[in-house]
Amino acid sequence: MNDKRKAYEEKLNAQLEEWNAQIALLQARADKAKAEAKIAYYKTIETLQHKQDEAGTKLHELKTAGDEATDVYQGVIKVVVLVFQHPALIAPAN
């Protein structure tokens, strides 16, 4: 396996695990929040889960792609950057 692809896979696996923890934290905050805040939390959680699913799909594509599949690498990085920059991950609402 290409070392570059293996590094991408490892990085994305680690990122997916981190997002799982962050989504769980948001879920816990949502469960404790008042009605209006719950709606906002659940919308954020839904968005993050959708982006996480996209990243998981890209990871699968990366694992099954040939070593020369640079478009898959670029797609993986694009999804990771988009999800990582989500405001809820930077400063979740209280």
Helices and strands, in N-to-C order?
HHHH
Largest sheet descriptor: none
Cα gyration radius (Å) = 15 Å
Helicity range of the residues?
Answer: over 70%
Structural class: mainly alpha
How is this structure best described in words?
- The protein is mostly helical and 94 residues long.
- Helix content is 84%, strand content 0%.
- The chain is built from four helices and no strands.
- It has helices at residues 3-32, 35-64, 70-84, 87-90.
- The termini are far apart.
Quick structural overview:
This protein is mostly helical and 94 residues long. It has helices at residues 3-32, 35-64, 70-84, 87-90.
Salient structural properties:
94 residues, 84% helix, mainly alpha
Task: Describe the secondary-structure layout.
Layout: H1 3-32, H2 35-64, H3 70-84, H4 87-90
Helix pairs in contact: 1-2, 1-3, 2-3
